[in-house]
Design brief:
This protein has a single domain, classed as Glutaredoxin (3-Layer(aba) Sandwich), CATH 3.40.30. It is built from 9 helices and 4 strands, in the order E-H-E-H-H-H-H-H-H-H-E-E-H. The radius of gyration is 22 Å and the shape is globular.
Length: 243
Amino acid sequence: MRIDVWSDVVCPWCYIGKRRLEEALAASGDTATVVWHSFQLDPSSTNDDPRDLATRLAEKYGRGRDWALQANAQVTDIAAEVGLEYHLDQAKPANTVDAHRLLHLARELEEAGEVPAETQGRLKERLLKAYFTDGLPVGDHATLTELATEAGLPTEQVREVLASTTYTDDVAADQAQALAYGANGVPFFVIDEKYGVSGAQPVEVFQEALRRANADRKPVTLITAPGATTDGDAACGPDGCPI
């Protein structure tokens, strides 16, 4: 099974959705290849914004600071229900394009067999924890280099990517693909290119999507004539056609 996920590393619901998906997979016993795709919630954000998260949210949505603080407290409580520890008062502003470019590097190296499987997933997890729990600046190159190396990427290749514009087009392509699927927000999950789950839905929703995907992948039941075999007497195969 393959699960494609669009998310941002500064999206609180994306981290929660990741945990709920993982819980659903664990409960079902399914194994899946999870591929992480880029989606920037705010491509115009900067790494040197002096405002804290509550102020930025209040101004973005035209609401008061008290509303933003309450919203942060609510999502922090929900995160705690899935075992996550949020410190949104310490969250540093960040443009996440470079974090996403490193996630593309991780995926490419993983597919080439140059790093172990799940390296991209480890980097994704580390970036989310860095922002939401550790209060680290995930737009800072020195921080990104340390986090990516910790996740298993070669330090020199990380530095080369950060010093260039490599994978910038891939980040944009991911965002365009999400919009083509009809995803205007994240997280957005696509299972086996057929079943979509929008948002950090309850675990039961993920379980149902996994169940449907598994049902589609079950082998068909063969119907034969009485006394006939089921090994392709009247069918052509890799070794030719029986006459």
